[in-house]
Design goal:
Elements lengths: L1 H18 L12 H16 L5 H5 L4 H12 L2 E3 L5 E3 L10 H7 L10 H25 L6 H19 L2 H7 L7 H20 L4 H4 L2 H24 L7 H12 L3 H11 L5 H23 L7 H32 L8 H20 L6 H9 L6 H26 L14 H27 L4 H11 L4 H12 L5 H25 L23 E7 L3 H12 L8 E10 L7 E4 L15 H14 L4 E9 L4 H11 L4 E5 L2 E3 L6 E4 L1 H13 L3 E6 L15 E7 L3 H14 L4 E10 L9 H15 L10 E8 L2 H10 L6 E5 L22 H8 L8 E6 L7
Helix pairs in contact: 1-2, 1-4, 6-7, 6-18, 7-18, 9-17, 9-18, 11-12, 11-14, 11-19, 12-19, 12-21, 13-14, 14-20, 15-17, 16-17, 19-20, 19-22, 20-22, 21-22, 25-26, 27-28
């Protein structure tokens, strides 16, 4: 029979070469006999395991012709029974336009080659999910990005099935080869979960509030117990035990990775509710991993279950007792200021691949291995931040969308119409709704019992009820392993889409992050008593901000009878972590717990200032490790918590030592300052230091000369109030310059103008802290327009060391008319921007002050 088979194959191949002479061109370097042997070898391997012998013995050459054609062009061929032969190495890309010109109709379109195919799928999916993401933003809806990626997969699935396009099928679902977009998407999911493991800080569980820990435990345990109790009471169970346990576990658990991604996408991960949600989900995630570990016996016999559990424990021990200490040794060997050696990154990536294969061999979700490995790697700089920087951006933008798209293309939309008639689908949908409501109620009741407001409790329960990336990954793995049937997978996948659409909308409806810093008291300098305690929050980004802020504080303090409390907040960019951290250095010593000593200079400098210069000033230092786009939330939260009256921010520009050249222009700091001005619960000041602000001019034996420019308005009154506190200092000479337009009376009748007049009269008629009147000077100047104002200020540039102005100083006013068009930085106001401009002569520093914007009723 084998001789007859070979004879039939050779005869068929000879016939094929005669009918397709161009086929020989595919093997220009090989003789025809060699090419024939190659194809015959593949053909014999294929037919030895198929039922084609009878057809070939009967002279049926059609199958042989088709197979040889596919081997020649596709590099692989499949039999009627599904046996595949491949040519290795495969041809990844086409020969370009020449292929069609030479081979004509038998040449393949470029999208049927593997590399162009996967590139085309990436582009299609990218543009589709970006379309949905931009559409949601234009509609004002805060929807997570992964929801847009899932909708892109739904659109492709519906389009492919409705149109029945052969070309679309060839692009999205290749004929009989490995689905490369799906494989690459699975890799993206694995990398995503590995990176989330790197970002997690398990020690945070032990630092979490009792409210967060209890919420995390109850939100998992309550729905799991109720669901299991109702299932056991059923006599006719429509769901198999494996399907039920998988759905019950995944619906009851709240993965930390999914919640962190959700909160980051909707922009509330730095809010108070976001912090509690992250802590609660971390507890829930760890408890869920324990449940997964304990549920292994449900899927295999006792002996195999014990073996699998032992192997999992061995991997966990290896990760935390060998890999983690090795990473810390690598960090110790690293030279200060140098990045981590690339060889450690490569070794971690190799271990990532092997951990994935290890859990695949155990029959578990392969991504669990990389996730546990990620947990063992120290988060934050230098290793964790480098891994996140190198893997996260490319993965989230290019590879991970393929996972969502290909997963949604596996669903069967036609089965949805039988949702209320099919017992299995109805049981899955009922189980999902039951667990959702139990989880929602339990997650809302627990924080409410801990005295959390009802609306905030509802928002927290919505966060804990969210389903997304991790759940879809588990369900897709179960579907590919045939543990979940197609119609059940369809209901589960669509439930995740609906959940991820409506949960963020509900959170946005119940929770407005802009209102979380509304203050019920007037916290500004105007309403502060003359000798009342001034509480300031000083923000530090870089070491060069330390001296300028210390000098300003020193100049604004005059005696123990007028106390000054300073809260210093060092702002550090969050790298390689998901949870923002606020460290109090009164509670925590330097370099302990935060993994580095980035705040040591700030803490030691202000301690030195407190100990040796102004011992009566109260200093309290903090370190905020947060995402730069959300640092304003931490600043405003601390100002609200400490009842601060003034927030001092450094300007985003830095000048050279000669104070004439701009050497740094940080847009992130500018964006932060602008956001703080919009939502601060108290007054805000922005310091532009171009000359050293210091009251102790020991070398020159001269006092600090300060000029406050007063035009009118609440911000000007706030600037005047701060200037009065500085004016009480023995080493400060204060000048109040009032500008009013020519040919107009300076006695105004409006409410603001009346307040301005009262403040100025009080300024002039009251002796400032027992000092002689010579230390405070009041000057009035008439100016025609902005041109005269600019000329006047230019002539005064060498007379003062510091200008103090209100942010809204001169807006829509005659004295600044013409200057608005030259304003570059809106956060400084018209005059503040003019004084801080590089074109302004001299090196006078500027302090721009904005009064507290709103008080909640």
């Amino acid at each position: 029979m084998s001789e007859k088979l070979l004879w039939s194959a050779e005869k068929s191949f000879s016939w094929f070469l005669e009918s397709h002479p161009d086929f020989v061109l595919l093997f220009p370097a090989l003789p025809q006999s060699c090419s024939s042997s190659i194809c015959l070898g593949f053909f014999f391997l294929r037919t030895a395991m198929s039922d084609l012998e009878v057809d070939l013995s009967n002279g049926n050459e059609t199958e042989m012709s088709r197979w040889a054609f596919e081997m020649a062009w596709y590099g692989e061929a499949v039999s009627a029974t599904g046996i595949i032969c491949e040519d290795h190495p495969t041809k990844l890309y086409s020969s370009g336009v020449w292929e069609k010109m030479i081979y004509g109709p038998i040449g393949l379109p470029f999208w049927q080659y593997r590399l162009p195919n996967i590139e085309l799928v990436i582009v299609i999916v990218f543009f589709l999910w970006q379309f949905f993401d931009i559409l949601f933003k234009k509609l004002g809806l805060v929807i997570p990005k992964f929801t847009s990626m899932m909708l892109a997969g739904l659109v492709l699935h519906g389009t492919m099935n409705r149109t029945g396009s052969v070309t679309l099928h060839q692009i999205l679902q290749p004929k009989h080869r490995i689905n490369m977009p799906e494989s690459l998407g699975s890799l993206g999911f694995t990398i995503f979960w590995f990176v989330k493991g790197v970002k997690m800080d398990i020690k945070r569980i032990f630092r979490s509030e009792a409210k967060a820990v209890t919420t995390g435990i109850v939100s998992v345990t309550a729905p799991a117990l109720i669901g299991a109790f109702l299932y056991l009471r059923q006599e006719n169970r429509p769901l198999q035990t494996a399907v039920f346990s998988t759905v019950l576990l995944m619906q009851s658990t709240t993965p930390f990775s999914g919640v962190a991604r959700l909160l980051r996408d909707i922009g509330i991960n730095h809010s108070s509710i976001g912090r509690i949600g992250l802590s609660s989900s971390l507890v829930s995630d760890m408890l869920g991993l324990v449940y997964i570990f304990l549920s292994i016996p449900l899927y295999s016999d006792k002996l195999m279950a014990m073996l699998i559990m032992t192997m999992v424990i061995v991997f966990i021990v290896f990760a935390f007792l060998f890999v983690r200490p090795a990473m810390f040794r690598a960090i110790k060997k690293k030279r200060e200021g140098r990045p981590i050696d690339n060889k450690y990154i490569y070794w971690i990536l190799v271990m990532l691949c092997f951990s994935c294969l290890y859990f695949k061999m155990l029959g578990q979700l392969p991504a669990l291995g990389p996730f546990i490995l990620g947990l063992s790697i120290p988060n934050g700089p230098p290793i964790g931040s480098v891994l996140v920087e190198r893997l996260e951006g490319f993965n989230l933008g290019i590879i991970l969308p393929l996972f969502f798209a290909t997963s949604m293309m596996k669903i069967d939309l036609g089965s949805v119409k039988y949702l209320f008639t099919d017992a299995e689908e109805l049981a899955i949908a009922s189980l999902i709704l039951l667990i959702f409501f139990v989880k929602f109620l339990s997650s809302a009741v627990v924080p409410y019992l801990f005295k959390m407001p009802l609306k905030d409790s509802i928002v927290l329960s919505l966060i804990m009820s969210h389903k997304g990336i991790i759940e879809l990954g588990f369900y897709t793995f179960a579907y590919d392993s045939t543990a979940i049937p197609s119609k059940s997978f369809t209901v589960l996948a669509l439930s995740i889409v609906l959940n991820s659409l409506f949960i963020p909308m509900a959170i946005q409806y119940f929770y407005d992050p802009t209102k979380q810093f509304m203050c019920y008291q007037k916290r500004n300098l105007v309403n502060l008593r003359d000798n009342g305690e001034l509480k300031t929050l000083v923000c530090i980004h870089r070491p060069d901000h330390i001296t300028s802020m210390i000098n300003l504080l020193e100049a604004s303090y005059h005696c123990e009878g007028s106390p000054l409390t300073c809260y210093v907040l060092h702002l550090v960019e969050l790298q390689g972590q998901d949870v923002p951290t606020l460290i109090s250095h009164k509670v925590q010593k330097l370099g302990v717990g935060n993994g580095d000593n980035r705040s040591d200079n700030v803490v030691l400098s202000f301690e030195h200032f407190h100990r040796y210069i102004c011992s009566s000033i109260s200093i309290d230092t903090f370190t905020c490790i947060a995402n730069p786009n959300h640092m304003q939330d931490d600043i405003c939260w601390l100002a609200l918590d400490k009842a601060a009256s003034l927030i001092l921010l450094p300007f985003h520009r830095t000048w050279s030592l000669d104070r004439k050249t701009i050497i740094s222009d940080n847009g992130v700091i500018r964006y932060l300052n602008f956001n703080v001005l919009k939502q601060a619960p108290c007054s805000v000041g922005i310091l532009i230091e171009r000359q050293v602000v210091n009251k102790n001019q020991k070398k020159s034996h001269s006092a600090l000369k300060v000029c406050v420019i007063f035009i009118g308005g609440r911000d000007d009154r706030e600037a005047l109030a701060f200037a009065k506190r500085m004016g009480r200092n023995d080493n400060v000479i204060l000048t109040v310059l009032r500008l009013f337009p020519t040919n107009k009376s300076n006695e105004m009748t409006g409410w603001d103008q009346m307040l301005d007049t009262v403040e100025l009269r009080e300024m002039m008629h009251r002796n400032s802290g027992g000092k002689s009147d010579e230390s405070t000077t009041y000057v009035e100047k008439e100016v025609l327009d902005g041109t005269e104002t600019s000329m006047l200020l230019r002539s005064m540039t060498c007379d003062f060391d510091l200008f103090i102005v209100g942010r809204s100083n001169g807006m829509d006013h005659e004295v600044t008319s013409g200057l608005e068009g030259w304003s570059e930085f809106e956060e400084l106001g018209i005059l503040g921007d003019f004084l801080a401009s590089p074109d302004f002569p001299g090196m006078t520093s500027v302090l721009v002050i904005q009064q507290q914007r709103s008080v909640a009723s």
